[in-house]
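subagent[fold] <- orchestrator: predict structure for attached chain, return tokens only, no commentary.
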Amino acid sequence: MKSVVKIIVIFTFAACGNTPRGIELVADNAQRKVDVLYDGKLFTSYIYPADLEKTALYPVCTAHGTVITRGYPRDPRPNDRIDHPHHVGAWFTFGDVNGVDFWGTSSVLPAERRPLYGEVRHTGIVSAQSGVNQATLVVTTDWVDFYEKLLLKEETTFVFRGEDDWRIVERTTVLTACQDTVTFTDNKEGMIAIRMDRAFEEPSDQPGRFVDADGIITEVKVLNNEGVNGVYRNSEGFEKGDVWGKPTKWVSLSAEKAGEKISVAIVDHKDNPGYPAHSHARGYGLFSTNNMGAQAFNEEASQFKLMITRGQTTTFKHLMAVKTNGFVTDDEMNQLFAAFNK
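subagent[fold] -> orchestrator:
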């Protein structure tokens, strides 16, 4: 029996009301990245550096050039939080594939823990096509464990486009099992995620570790919440920290940065295993939606488990969007959900 795993990820950014002249993909093999330029301005980059344990879209910018992703650990900026070095840009991984953690892997892991983690390695660019209204990038990766055992092959198609006040990336990912059995077991660490700039965090009175203007890590006992104004909201009407762990059709995160009103949203699809997905959305800036976590969020829920056999594939569809020049409304979110689930 064959099922298809399709992961559709959409990031949307304001286009200032202008029709795009063109969306261009510029490969830089030396820097191991593909830049996505919208009318000559950086939209995002698909990156696959040798020192990163997975691929990612990083940074992610609005049409105004405002960066919405955190800089740490690759390009620390003043006031960045110093935590979770595996949170880089926007990515797709999972915390338990045949017992291997592909989510928390990073270069700072202690040697004795490394056998528990795997890597998602870029293996090739299948095609790259620029265009007037959209650009398409097809890439492949291998999911390997510490012992170089290949668990999954991945082929992902990114479709980049822009529409008025939106920037859009559709991500379709096909995962193929390379072992007799590959099992995804209920785990909160997953799946579609983006680590946000500090402006999108929720104000907090908890201590933290931050980078100062000189790049020095500083322990802060009382947080300065100036400019920190993020607010989560889901389709059930829950807001802020109450969205965490809740199953929902969509979640949005809104904040103002440098006078620009921006909303990020993740929309689930009814055909996904585990629909509706649970929100692994944290006030410190992690914005994630997880279809393969259930009991990990609610001990009263049934345990989730997805198994595929060698050569079989499995499918997920997600839409991630960012709107600028005004916060997204519930009506807009419901329209996004309805259109995505036609």
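orchestrator: received. Logging for downstream: The domain at 23-340 is CATH 2.70.98 (Beta-galactosidase; Chain A, domain 5). The chain is about 5% helix and 40% strand.
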